[in-house]
Amino acid sequence: MDTLFSIKDVIAILKKSIVWIVSFALGGLVIAGLTIYLLMTPMYEMNTQILVTQTSENDNAISQNAEVQANLQLVNTYRVLITSPRVLNQVEKNIDGAYSTEELTNKIKVTTEQDSQVMNITATDADPAMAAEIANKTAIAFKKVTPQVMKVDNINILSKASVTKTTSPVSPKPFLIMLIGLLGGALIGVIVAFMRHLLHNTFKEEKDLEALGVPLLGSIGKLPIHKPSVDKKKGEFNEKQTIS
């Protein structure tokens, strides 16, 4: 059979297989929902902000600008220092060994805005309270270690992480995952519909032959089937048939 489809053919195939497509779409939606609520653990992110400040109170504008530029250059160094074993070992002790230094490395992320002296310490955990504690303890440990390592005391904590009533998990994203499941299931249903059409090797209508350019020699109509009636009283077949 010809495997090229016109728009009319595509619409006809989709209409004919609408039950398959809807079934696969709903199946994908159900699988996505079960995956979210049975296999995925909600994760929370808590954020603590710290500020790299000036180390002197020089009123000279040129000196102040030079110090700001120096602090901006130090920010990249501080980002590495925050996730260094020197700081994370202290954090591990402060959270009573709930996580090792290696595990904390994967849970802590440090970000900064371009040309900004503000740094964000973000901790991720299944428990929002633990995520907040990790972020806050990391900021405190960093503030304590910096003067020992860098010989400067220019770190201030702007805001601490805290759990509120509006705190919600950042992952997984149920709506997005279920939408992907729905669309993925529908796509599989469409593929199955076209595969069934391509693998179908019988002719049910005259137009199937016409599409191949084969002349129709004749057709056999559907014959009615007469069933002998049963006389319930005598338990015998009634052979009388009505001839129309």
TrEMBL record:
Membrane-spanning segments: 18-40, 175-195
UniProt key word Transmembrane helix: yes
Location relative to the cell: Cell membrane
Record domain Tyrosine-protein kinase G-rich: where: 148-197
Membrane topology: Multi-pass membrane protein
Location of the Polysaccharide chain length determinant N-terminal domain: 5-93
Gene Ontology CC terms, in alphabetical order: plasma membrane
Example GO molecular function: protein tyrosine kinase activity
Coiled-coil boundaries: none
InterPro entries in the cross-refs: Bact_polysacc_biosynth/exp (IPR050445), GNVR (IPR032807), LPS_length_determ_N (IPR003856)
Entry-linked Pfam families: GNVR (PF13807), Wzz (PF02706)
Keyword Cell membrane attached: yes
Keywords for this protein: Cell membrane, Membrane, Transmembrane, Transmembrane helix
Protein family according to the UniProt entry: Belongs to the CpsC/CapA family.
Protein name: Capsular biosynthesis protein
Species of origin: Listeria booriae
Lineage of source species: Bacteria, Bacillati, Bacillota, Bacilli, Bacillales
